[in-house]
Amino acid sequence: MYRLNTDGSGRLPGMTRRDDVAPASPTADQITIAGGGTEAVIATLGATLRTLTQDGSPLIDGFNADQAVPYGRGQLCLPWPNRIRKGVYTWDGVEIQAPINEPDRDAALHGLVRWAIWEVRAQAPDSVTLGYRLCPQDGYPFLVDLEIVYAVGAAGLDVTLVATNKGTAAAPYGFATHPYLRVGDHHIDDCLLQVTAKNVLLTDAHLMPTELIGVSGTQYDFTVAAPLLDRDLDNAFHSVEVGEDGLSWSTLWGPAGDDATSMWWVADGCGWFQVCTGDAFPLAAWRRRGIAMEPMTCPPNAFQTGEDVVRIEPGADFTVRWGIQRGPQPGLTFPGA
């Protein structure tokens, strides 16, 4: 039976007065993990990588706990990366309309889980496991459980994401992670990028794919470290070199190779790599502050074209793994050093 409290407020015991609530973080709970000189802060909104440092040096251009996520920083793009033109795709003969969340480009952008609160499933001082059950909905009538493990140590950040089909029908799936890398306090215009990709995907004014070309002789050739100054990038690269250990790498060098930040990913099933300098961001303060480096399973508009879309059968799962560390790719030296 409902009764008034003695103060006549009508609040149940234990309820907090609205005027007593302190401002909450717009990215929900903040979880700090640390070990081996590496520290990361993960926000439960979208299982977002908010900050990352190694030996006190920032490896990503993150954001503060009192800020909303700016331009996808540290977010996960699931169950599709990048864009779907007009949000329309066909799967197993059924046409599906995904919600348009980038109206100026008439596109469905970066999937459906960026603004969901993920649950903490396990936690240790140097790692955290978060999960989210993506339930059938308009735009994605499939049931997929997502679980991600962030772990830190002397080798930097190591991340594993598993998608498991909990439904009764095969599900289409794509992945990208969306951190903006930086080298300490250096501006990206003073940095050089090195990624051994043979091809790059050109796009139209709406950032939809038009043509895959070779990088040789173009502004997109980063097979040897090349400066980012005056290069406006928002493109997917393909045919990135794979080492004997099954890993692909990209390295962002500081001026004259004085420091570096690198990203690695397991290449099997993850054959695309997006690079974005953020020149087109409406808010000038966020342009070219870091460089988005995004391992992807498929290119932009893949749900519409079908290119490299992962098919997860009922009961099956699909795993991707990647990491970020201070320093260059092992065995790589700065040109001329």
Characterise the protein shown here:
The protein has 337 residues and is mainly beta. It has one helix at 302-305, and strands at residues 30-35, 38-43, 48-54, 57-58, 75-77, 83-85, 88-91, 94-97, 107-109, 119-124, 127-134, 144-153, 156-165, 171-173, 176-178, 180-181, 192-194, 197-203, 209-214, 226-227, 234-240, 247-253, 260-266, 272-276, 291-296, 310-312, 317-326. The protein is globular. The model is unreliable at 1-16 (pLDDT under 50).
Shape: globular
Structural class, please?
mainly beta
Order of helices and strands: EEEEEEEEEEEEEEEEEEEEEEEEEHEE
Distance between the termini: 78 Å
Low-pLDDT residue intervals, each spanning 5 or more residues: 1-16
Into which percent range does the helicity of residues fall? under 10%
Mean of pLDDT = 94
Cα Rg: 21 Å
What's the SSE blueprint?
Layout: E1 30-35, E2 38-43, E3 48-54, E4 57-58, E5 75-77, E6 83-85, E7 88-91, E8 94-97, E9 107-109, E10 119-124, E11 127-134, E12 144-153, E13 156-165, E14 171-173, E15 176-178, E16 180-181, E17 192-194, E18 197-203, E19 209-214, E20 226-227, E21 234-240, E22 247-253, E23 260-266, E24 272-276, E25 291-296, H1 302-305, E26 310-312, E27 317-326
Antiparallel strand pairs: 1-2, 2-3, 3-4, 5-15, 6-9, 7-8, 10-11, 11-12, 12-13, 13-27, 14-26, 16-25, 17-20, 17-22, 18-19, 18-21, 21-24, 22-23, 23-27, 24-25
List its salient traits:
337 residues, mainly beta, disordered N terminus, globular
How would you concisely characterize the structure shown here?
The protein has about 325 residues and is mostly beta strands. The protein has one helix at about 300-305; strands spanning about 30-35, 40-45, 50-55, 55-60, 75, 85, 90, 95, 105-110, 120-125, 125-135, 145-155, 155-165, 170-175, 175-180, 180, 190-195, 195-205, 210-215, 225, 235-240, 245-255, 260-265, 270-275, 290-295, 310, 315-325.
